[in-house]
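In response to the reviewer comment on reproducibility (Comment 2.3), we provide here a single inverse folding case reported in full, input and output, so that an independent group could reproduce the run without further information from us. The structure tokens appear first.
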């Protein structure tokens, strides 16, 4: 079994905080930063903080 450890904060070359390495919020912010050229207004917090709970899910 391979276990990945949180090994510190992941920062971009320009100093933007992506979060703790390999955590859900870091993964999401890294994707938005690298693929969509987008920085979240608040770079701290949990992944759940970046979504609008009032939007209705189409399930």
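Designed residues, in position order:
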């Amino acid at each position: 079994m391979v276990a990945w450890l949180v090994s510190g904060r992941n920062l971009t070359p320009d100093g933007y905080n992506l979060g703790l390495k390999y955590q859900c919020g870091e993964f999401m912010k890294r994707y938005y930063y690298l693929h969509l050229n987008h920085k979240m207004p608040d770079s701290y917090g949990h992944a759940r903080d970046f979504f609008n709970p009032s939007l209705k899910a189409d399930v």
